[in-house]
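Students often ask what a 'structure token' actually looks like in practice. Rather than answer in the abstract, let us consider Carbamoyltransferase HypF, a protein of 774 residues. Its sequence is given first.
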Amino acid sequence: MAGTRVRIKGLVQGVGFRPFVWRLALEEGVKGRVLNDAEGVLVLTWGRDEAIRRFLERLEAEAPPLARIDRVSIEPATDLPEPHTDAFRIVESAPGPAATGIVPDAATCPQCLKEVFDPASRRYGYAFTNCTHCGPRFSIVRAIPYDRENTAMACFRMCEQCQAEYDAPENRRFHAQPNACPQCGPGVWYEENGRAIGEGDPIEQAALRLRQGEVVAVKGLGGFHLAASAWLPEAVRRLRARKRRPDKPLALMARDLEQARTFCEFGALEASLLESSAAPVVLLKQLADPGLAGEIAPGQDRYGVMLPYTPLHHLLMAQLPGPIVLTSGNLSEEPQAIDNMDARNRLGGIADGFLMHDRAIVNRLDDSVAGIRIGKPAVFRRARGYAPAPFRLHGAFTAAPRILAMGGDLKAAFCLLRDGEAVMSQHMGDLENRRALRDFEDNLSLYREIHDFEPERIAVDCHPDYLSARLGRNLAEETGIGLVEVQHHHAHLGACLAEARVEPGADETLAIVLDGSGYGRDGTVWGGELLTGGYRGFERTGHFLPVALPGGGAAVREPWRNLTAHLIAAFGPGYRSKLAGTGLEELLSEKNLPVMERMIEKRLNSPLSSSAGRLFDAVAAALGVCFDRQSYEGQTGAALEALAGPYLERESGYPVAVSSGRPVVLSWAPFWEALLSDLKKGVCAGRISARAHLGLLDSLSSVSAQLAGEREVNRIVLSGGAMQNRILAEGLHRRLIACGFSVLVPREFPVNDGGLSLGQAAVAGMLSCQDGDP
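Now compare that with the structural description of the same chain:
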């Protein structure tokens, strides 16, 4: 007989792991005990060597569906007293410094869903049915260990039947912290004008209002949503007007895969993503005639679609004839409401009624957004269902100090790095919004408290005016903690290397990083970059030609300004002579071009930018797309991608000039010459967009292959917000793979600025390890 101490780390709390261990121990005849503590799960065993060997083999092979085992350490335990009984026991959680991960919220499992729609079940029609395989996790947790008293369920005392389930190791609700039923758990009601409507089923009342074309605020898992019937154009227009969201696509919820296929086309990979426990919004190709309101995704060829992920959503969708718009419960760009009173105050002018409940949302979580890119799932917004599950990095990062990385100001998310793991926060939006900034600060305090995290280094973006960077600098100054500034595009490179667990020291890589803007080493705005390097540094080996941004931030919002700047950069002061017969002469004549030209000439509020995003703006404006203004970030790029799709296979790209020096500079005079010629010929916008995309693909793939070959680099990274463009990402990947390169693209974290903090943490971690600095 021998004793063994087994430490399991990873996502192993709140997923039914202890009863799973208990059942294995009974089956294999192993004695001992299992408990949760701040590091994960601890198993103390006593038994014959062969029994313990089988027990340990099955421990990893048969883990529960929501569990993720990162590390199992096993050591003999000679100090364990032999148990006096044959029992294997589950014992109470042990306190201590937090080191374990929190499991993300999980969509309703098939077993719970069956109960919800089974008239014979005591949970029939109950909107908060859950078990250890599904339900709320991070959205309700206040502290680790993940026990009921540390969650929003602490105020709901379980009835005798629920308590019996909770106490029975053989039951799938054993220690399911949100366990409840209609007799003892949270309840749902429908209200209008602050007054509950007491008659009838509240979910049925909400469904009736939706069928009548009204807007209903629905309290979900991580926040409130605004719902409207997707088949009623007037309802969608009403929602857009009230929410002040004129153009940005709205997410849809479908009852099931069958209903989703009535307006989208997709395959097995997308279906698997839709039905996964994360249940993200998935980008799907629209059918030619989807039969839904045209106002849902104007100018796009894809819908963002999700399936119901709570019993409440399932019950609501079962009473509706078609899909609904389900968008964040906020005014445009604000964080979504999570508190009932706050929702009444902020959404009262948008929603006609409210479907409410009384389970508190502790942690705000937007819906995650994902899709299939290059044949595999990729996350574009990481929130509900994914956050805050940690990333396990390369083993070298275990030597790095504890890093707090602050991320960027757009698509804000921070990152905690310790013991070789990176914990990324959920997406929090644009920090220029006051409510979003406060949310960022509150979440930062919460994560540090939950994870008992005291940083030894703070990593920030180099931009002097980023609010996230200011917060980091202030914290470093107040505490005396070392500060590491990480260049924006270097962070994009570092994030890709970190996710792929590339070994430091073998990390030399060429990165193609295309985005809207990032503060460059030379003080200009970068955004179309070819970098060569790794975690500890980089060289700018190529970039797009810097072009003026007349009006600074105004040029980001008004694409015609970028068109003017690009034409001047391509053709000089006489650029107007190139416009005859293109239709642009008339459009631009309505603008104050002399002022714009003087601003560019004298560099008055016209910083230089190599931005890929601003090139897309200019091309879109030339085609009359968002000529005067774009209402959300990336609108021009998404519209150009949709226009180009049908024509790609039959077109060739516009020429791009490539310099012979180093760094290589890609410039656009021949590109614009060809594009203007096509406008004069009356070539349709879709063909022009396709030729523009293909010109970028031709130039970037050939230049990258050349630079990588010169430096004997075999690995190429594709990153930056512009790589959300499917044509660019898939086209570059296909061409570079064909040239024999290993190509990395982000999968588990967003390719846009939502992944910056991971890259900052990885770069700062390796820089801090350099020359033996711990």
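One point worth highlighting: The radius of gyration is 28 Å. Ask yourself how you might have guessed this from the sequence alone, and why that guess would often be unreliable.
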